[in-house]
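Ticket #4471: structure export looks truncated?
Reporter: QA, pipeline team
Priority: medium

Steps to reproduce: submit the single chain below to the structure queue and open the exported record.
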Amino acid sequence: MSVAADLAPEPSIPRCLSCSSPLFRTFVDLGLQPLANSYVPPDRAAEPEPRFPLHARVCDNCLLVQVEAVQPPENIFVDYAYFSSFSESWLKHCSDYADAMTERFDLGPESRIVEIASNDGYLLQYFVAKGMRVLGIEPAANVAQVAIERGVLTDISFFGTETAQRLADAGWSADLLAAKNVLAHVPDINDFVAGIRLILKPNGVFTVEFPHLLNLIRQVQFDTIYHEHFTYLSLIALQPIFERHGLTVFDVEKQDTHGGSLRLFVARAEAGRRPSERVEAVLEEERAAQLDRAAGYEGFEAKVQAIRRDLVGFLASARAEGKCVIAYGAAAKGNTLLNFCGVTAQDIEFVVDRNPEKQGRLLPGSHIPVRPVENLIEAHPDYVFILPWNLRHEIISQLPQVTEWDGKFMTAIPTVQIHSGAH
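Actual output as written to the record:
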């Protein structure tokens, strides 16, 4: 062996975002992909598009599934194209949450309700309507401005220990602290969780919702993996993180949102809240699926490859038969799916979306044009490919016209499936 070879540096080994252990085990490698929410203006279509490794690994020590941080959060979340208020079913979920939390924790006009990643005020508006004092924390200024115009006081910042201490010092210690589908977006999960303790009142409650890793594995929801989702969460992996920072998970509820989610209830350890039986029940379910050992994460990549093979085959057959396929929902998860499968505008003429922020742009990577929903109605496609499969029933109910021209709906997760308008 040459001297040069002896002196060659070791390749960089990524470290776990939770416990800093080296990450050697692959969960699934989805190749080089653009940022899933980086929609492309048409006048920049010819410019080279940055692509980054999208490689999910699982920590052998703490079993946290994660991707590497290839871009700082400021490059992803400061000008953001996702607005929560465009899903009617999600708004109902949030309205129901506000009612349930108000009753369960006896919240009233003097209560302080704080939400991390409050987006366009989609959730806090329901607490405002109840006469409560609310504060949103949202890093994307364009989205936060919509919330402010809606009457939701919003602090434009990323959440962590610095923000938590600043807001607590300003009198915003929370009776109820909410975080819906933001924990996965955090590259420094320890700083984030430490901040939770700082901003909670001594008897305050933190609720956090996230898609459950158990469902991701069972339903092969690999399209929910993208660069801005740094982690893919189980209770087994999360519980030690909370305990490390003096917090206790005292209850858990299963939710139907985002393909199957968990809502955790968390308090300061010294508050003395005893964990409910539901906490142990979820842990036992995860252990039964072997999420407490390496075996539970094996074989996932083969299932992902099968979906790619089937979707590519379906679209090739549709094109050969002269069938028209148009996609619904310019969702980030759809971009992971389309780019991994190599789908382009030759396969899908365009995608429609209700969000005007996305209309007139191109999907990242595939460069499929994004148009208003009315364009789908005018086109009379043979197949409407629903990319946000978690909203399938809502979307089908909004498009009764499709059955009038004998069109069909389709989804690709967990397998390629055709759906009638009757869903």
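Status: closed, not a bug. The export was complete when the record was re-opened. Leaving a note from the reviewer for reference: The mean pLDDT is 92.
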